[in-house]
């Protein structure tokens, strides 16, 4: 399989911009994908933010199962999971943000002034940084999308007692662990245009069969076999057949990836505790 690597030029610029903005921030909201918290954890972002307090947000928790809870516990007390697309999540993240700055706010009040606290919102692409800011704002204040790399510039946004900096999604310059890179490809954090979707779909089928075999059987009638035989089963089940009786593998591959991303295969968590070990 082709080695996965994606670090376009604008990400280098984004890292410099974030480095310049760190002194202005009082804390960091680190967005992670609840389906793959370890895979979406970029240690370079944490190193960049230094000693600033960090709130870890495992977003898209409606698409992850209970395995994500164990991974969240490894991140410590300042970690929450939510679905930023759900308006009811606003209270949870505001509560966590207030908790993170409570002591500092109290000290400021005792000195006679009320400071506006600033948070940088960071994470790899497509983890929901802009979505969570729009959730807190109660309106569309930033550009969002389901394609990696939507946010490019720096945007400080005032939200009541806080100001948030929406930053561009930034990948590690090198993917040392290709298993974790694959997980990012599955969830859409890597631009599909640079990926070989043949490989991605086959690897996804293989991994899901190892972890969630009943889901594949229920959705596609898959009961085993090689990865290619599993893709054949998808074609048969969904009627992806070309003129002459040949299977339409391209449609089947896109269907598998889309079914996973949209939650049609059920709630799935790809990472395990071993993947998170050593990252924090």
Q: What do you see in this structure?
A:
With 280 residues, this protein is an alpha/beta fold. It is built from eleven helices and six strands. A six-stranded mixed β-sheet has the order 3-2-1-4-6-5, sandwiched between helices. Strand 5 and strand 6 form a beta hairpin. Helix 7 crosses helix 9 and helix 9 crosses helix 10. The protein is elongated.
Annotate the secondary structure layout.
Blueprint: H1 9-21, E1 27-33, H2 43-49, E2 54-59, H3 67-74, E3 79-81, H4 90-110, E4 117-122, H5 129-137, E5 155-159, E6 162-166, H6 178-187, H7 197-211, H8 213-220, H9 227-238, H10 249-261, H11 273-276
Parallel strand pairs: 1-2, 1-4, 2-3, 4-6
Antiparallel strand pairs: 5-6
Helix pairs in contact: 6-7, 7-8, 7-9, 7-10, 9-10
Radius of gyration: 20 Å
Strand content: 5-15%
Total DSSP E strands? 6
Structural class: alpha/beta
The ordered string of helix (H) and strand (E) elements is HEHEHEHEHEEHHHHHH
For the biggest sheet, the summary is:
6 strands, mixed
Outline = elongated
Low-confidence stretches: 143-152
How many helices in DSSP terms? 11
**Mean pLDDT value:** 89
How much helix, percentage-wise, in residues?
40-55%
- In whole angstroms, the N-to-C terminal distance is 29 Å
Biggest sheet: strands side by side, in what order?
Answer: 3-2-1-4-6-5
What would a concise description of this structure say?
The protein is an alpha/beta fold and 280 residues long. The protein has eleven helices and six strands. The protein has a six-stranded mixed β-sheet with strand order 3-2-1-4-6-5, sandwiched between helices.
């Amino acid at each position: 399989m082709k080695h996965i690597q994606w670090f376009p030029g604008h990400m280098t610029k984004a890292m410099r911009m974030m480095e310049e903005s760190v002194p202005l921030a009082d804390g960091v909201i680190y967005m992670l994908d609840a389906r793959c918290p370890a895979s979406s954890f970029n240690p370079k972002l944490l190193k960049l933010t230094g000693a600033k307090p960090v709130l870890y947000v495992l977003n898209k928790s409606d698409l992850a199962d209970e395995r994500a809870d164990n991974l969240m516990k490894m991140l410590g007390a300042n970690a929450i999971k939510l679905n930023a697309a759900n308006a009811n999540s606003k209270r949870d993240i505001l509560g966590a943000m207030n908790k993170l700055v409570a002591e500092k706010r109290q000290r400021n009040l005792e000195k006679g002034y009320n400071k506006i606290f600033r948070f940088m919102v960071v994470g790899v692409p497509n983890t929901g940084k802009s979505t969570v800011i729009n959730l807190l704002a109660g309106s569309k204040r930033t550009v969002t999308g389901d394609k990696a790399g939507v946010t490019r510039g720096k945007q400080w946004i005032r939200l009541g007692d806080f100001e948030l900096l929406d930053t561009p999604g930034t990948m590690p310059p090198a993917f040392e662990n290709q298993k974790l890179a694959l997980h990012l490809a599955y969830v859409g954090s890597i631009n599909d245009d640079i990926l070989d979707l043949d490989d991605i779909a086959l690897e996804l089928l293989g991994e899901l069969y190892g972890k969630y075999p009943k889901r594949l059987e229920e959705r596609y009638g898959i009961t085993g076999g090689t990865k290619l035989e599993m893709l054949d089963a998808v074609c048969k089940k969904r009627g992806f057949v070309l003129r002459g009786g040949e299977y339409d593998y391209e449609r089947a591959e896109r269907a598998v990836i889309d079914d996973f991303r949209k939650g049609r295969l059920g709630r799935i968590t790809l990472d395990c505790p071993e993947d998170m070990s050593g990252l924090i």
